[in-house]
Amino acid sequence: MTKSYKKPHISFKKYLRSVLKRAHPDLGISKKGMDIMNDITIDLFNRIALTGTNLCASTSKKTLSLNDIDSACKLTVGG
C-alpha cells in the first residue's frame, strides 16, 4: 500500500497583510482580495524561479546566484 502525500500549500497571506498594514495602517482587505493577491504572488514567484532556472541552465551553472535572481526579476517584471 502506498502513502498519498498532500502537496504543501504555499501561502503569503501573512506577509501580504503585514506589508499592507505597514503601507496603509487604516486599510483592510477582504478574504477574496487576499486570495487573489496570494495567487498573484505565487504566480510571480514561480515565473521568476523558472526564469532563474533557465538562466542557470544556459550558463551551465548548478547554483542560482543573487545575480541570476536579479536578472530573472528584471526579465520577468521589467525595469
Describe the structure.
The protein is 65% helix and 0% strand. By secondary structure, the protein is mainly alpha-helical.
Short description:
65% of the residues lie in helices and 0% in strands. It has 79 residues and is an all-alpha fold. The mean pLDDT is 90.
Low-confidence stretches: none
Principal-axis shape: flat
C-alpha Rg (nearest Å): 17 Å
- Number of strand segments: 0
Primary descriptors:
mainly alpha; single chain; flat; 65% helix; 79 residues
Spell out the blueprint of helices and strands.
Layout: H1 13-23, H2 31-58, H3 66-77
Helix pairs in contact: 2-3
